[in-house]
Amino acid sequence: MALVFLVSGFPPRTPTWVSLSGLIVVTAGGAWFALGLRALGWNLTVFPRPKPQGVLVEHGAYRYARHPIYGGGLLMFVGFGMISSVPALAATALLAYIWIRKSQEEERLLAERFPAYAEYRERVRGRFLPWL
Q1: What's the CATH number where 85 sits?
Q2: Is pLDDT of 1 > 70?
Q3: Alpha helices in 1-132 (DSSP H)
């Protein structure tokens, strides 16, 4: 059965210019992700709740977006989708929804923990990327 898909041209090949554009998006996403990791440092946790000894990070990539690690990750997955297939892009949309919801919970918890978070959120409008 799998041979039928390969012979029939399914899934369709991604045009070269789209693949190359995807490579650029992956690279930009990786850089944004790395800048977010570097700025967050030891405050990093996979859980929405900030670490008990954590501090509010407002420098580095966090001057421009409140969740640059998620933004970089999404850019990388969009780029991978551009390189590989439309279904991969659809999966990225689902991931974006999950990360939007997670970031909303993180922001609620950050506002509880850090009184300055409300002002930071007003000042830094971008959630994942400076413009988004």
Answers
A1: 1.20.120.1630
A2: no
A3: 2-8, 16-40, 68-84, 86-113, 117-123
